[in-house]
UniProtKB/TrEMBL annotation:
<dbReference type="InterPro" id="IPR009057">
    <property type="entry name" value="Homeodomain-like_sf"/>
</dbReference>
<dbReference type="GO" id="GO:0005634">
    <property type="term" value="C:nucleus"/>
</dbReference>
<keyword id="KW-0805">Transcription regulation</keyword>
<dbReference type="Pfam" id="PF00249">
    <property type="entry name" value="Myb_DNA-binding"/>
</dbReference>
<keyword id="KW-0238">DNA-binding</keyword>
<dbReference type="InterPro" id="IPR044841">
    <property type="entry name" value="LUX/BOA-like"/>
</dbReference>
<feature type="region of interest" description="Disordered">
    <location>
        <begin position="167"/>
        <end position="189"/>
    </location>
</feature>
<protein>
    <recommendedName>
        <fullName>HTH myb-type domain-containing protein</fullName>
    </recommendedName>
</protein>
<dbReference type="GO" id="GO:0003677">
    <property type="term" value="F:DNA binding"/>
</dbReference>
<keyword id="KW-0804">Transcription</keyword>
<feature type="compositionally biased region" description="Low complexity">
    <location>
        <begin position="15"/>
        <end position="28"/>
    </location>
</feature>
<dbReference type="GO" id="GO:0003700">
    <property type="term" value="F:DNA-binding transcription factor activity"/>
</dbReference>
<dbReference type="InterPro" id="IPR006447">
    <property type="entry name" value="Myb_dom_plants"/>
</dbReference>
<dbReference type="InterPro" id="IPR017930">
    <property type="entry name" value="Myb_dom"/>
</dbReference>
<feature type="domain" description="HTH myb-type">
    <location>
        <begin position="83"/>
        <end position="142"/>
    </location>
</feature>
<dbReference type="InterPro" id="IPR001005">
    <property type="entry name" value="SANT/Myb"/>
</dbReference>
<keyword id="KW-0539">Nucleus</keyword>
Amino acid sequence: MLSARGGRPHDADAPPSSSSSSSSPRPRCMVDAAAAGDSSDRVMEWETGLPSPCEMTPVSHQLVPPALAAAFGIGALEAGVLLPSFARMVWTPELHHRFVEAVAHLGEKGAVPKAIVRLMNVDGLTRENVASHLQKYRLYLKRTRAATPPPPPAMYLPCFAAKPPPDGANCGESPPSRAPDAKTTTQIG
DNA sequence: GTTTAAATAT
DNA sequence: GATATTTAAA
């Protein structure tokens, strides 16, 4: 017997078993039309290369593990079936992967909760769910980037900072070396 | 007591 | 929509 709230995936006894999904012929995809004809302003950009929501692996049923669903008498999770309000969702690796892909396709500018939710096309996934996960994900990215400081573009650096020219070619800018008149040769007669 | 993950409030 | 705070679990 598993507890509702304590149902952390720590002891996840039911990882995404493909055995039960063998006979799950994805009902259909109604988001296709929504994504295509709704807002073609920015949507078209990421559509290229994207497998299209229909082809993506159906993760809708992963929101509630089979064992948990059985515990609460929830039968086959068809579209429209949400999680029990008292169970908090679990970001499975599959869900997170889809989340990351959505963010990647949307880009830094378009990766906002509303767009991500729509692109992920996961039944029952709310904007708040994604917003919370997005916050955590951004913190993760910040930490990751901090660990590996991106080298600044060498083209923007002064020539003396890049590397010593092999043939002594001058790039136009003068290095901060002392002025040539350092010795102030007073060549007086 | 600390850290992590998701929800919730601002 | 972004960020801060809170809650719950490990």
